[in-house]
C-alpha cells in the first residue's frame, strides 16, 4: 500500500500545488503526473537538507581547524 493510500487524489493535488507555490513554482501538472511530482519534490527536499547539513559540517570543521592551527587548512 502506498504512503498516500486513503487520501484523495484531489487532496494530494491541492496539497502538492500549495507546497510548490510556496517555493514559487507555478507550472501546472495533472493527476497523471502527481506521483512523479511528489517523488521529485521529496528528492528536492532531501537534497536541500543534505546540502545544508554538509555546509554546517564544513563550517564546524573549518572553525575547529582555525582554532587548532591559527588559520584554515589550505586545500591541495
Order of helices and strands: HH
Strand content: under 5%
Structural class call reads mainly alpha
Radius of gyration: 20 Å
Cα shape: rod-shaped
The figure for the number of domains is: 1
Number of helices: 2
- Extended strand count: 0
Helix coverage percent: 55-70%
Distance from first to last alpha carbon = 51 Å
Q: What's the main sheet like?
A: none
Uncertain segments of ≥5 residues (pLDDT<50)?
none
Report mean pLDDT, rounded to a whole number.
89
Question: What are the SSEs and their pairings?
Answer:
Layout: H1 9-22, H2 34-69
Characterise this structure.
This protein has one domain. It has two helices and no strands. The protein has helices spanning 9-22, 34-69. The radius of gyration is 20 Å and the shape is rod-shaped. 0% of the residues are buried.
In short:
The protein is an all-alpha fold. Helix content is 66%, strand content 0%. The longest helix is centred in the last third of the chain and has 36 residues, at 34-69.
Which descriptors apply to this entry?
rod-shaped
Amino acid at each position: 500500500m502506498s504512503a498516500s493510500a486513503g487520501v484523495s487524489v484531489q487532496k494530494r493535488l491541492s496539497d502538492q500545488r500549495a507546497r510548490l507555490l510556496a517555493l514559487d513554482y507555478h507550472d501546472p501538472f495533472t493527476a497523471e503526473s502527481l506521483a512523479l511530482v511528489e517523488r521529485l519534490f521529496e528528492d528536492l527536499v532531501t537534497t536541500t537538507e543534505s546540502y545544508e547539513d554538509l555546509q554546517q559540517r564544513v563550517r564546524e570543521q573549518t572553525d575547529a581547524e582555525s582554532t587548532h592551527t591559527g588559520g584554515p587548512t589550505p586545500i591541495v
